Amino acid sequence: MKNTMDEGRLQIEVPSTHFLEEWLKIFTKIHVKHFRKEGFSKKAAETLTREFHKEWGVIRDLRIK
Fold first, then answer.
1. Are the beta carbons of 49 and 32 closer than 8 angstroms?
2. CA distance 42 to 50
3. Do residues 32 and 45 make contact, with C-beta atoms less than 8 angstroms apart?
4. Radius of gyration for the chain, computed over Cα atoms and rounded to the nearest angstrom
5. Domain locations along the chain
6. Is the pTM higher than 0.70?
7. What is the largest CA-CA distance in the chain?
8. Which residue of 6, 44, 51, 60 has the smallest Cβ count within 10 Å?
9. CB atoms inside a 10 Å sphere around CB 26
10. Within 10 A of 44 (CB to CB), how many other CB atoms are there?
11. Which DSSP string do the residues of 16-49 spell out, in sequence order?
C-alpha cells in the first residue's frame, strides 16, 4: 500500500448471515439496558429498542452509489 496510496480503491461488502442472530441479541440487550438507564420501564425499553432497530435499519441499508 505504501506505493499505491493515491490509487483508487474498491470496497466490497460480503454480508455475514451466520452472525446476524447473535448480533441482534447483543444489539437488543445493549439498547434495552440503555433505555432502562434513561428511566423507561422494561416493556417500554423493549418497544423503543424494536423501533430504534427499524429506524437504524433504514439508515444502515443506504448505500453510497
1. yes
2. 12
3. yes
4. 18
5. 20-60
6. no
7. 56
8. 6
9. 10
10. 14
11. -SSSHHHHHHHHHHHHHHHHHHTT--HHHHHHHH
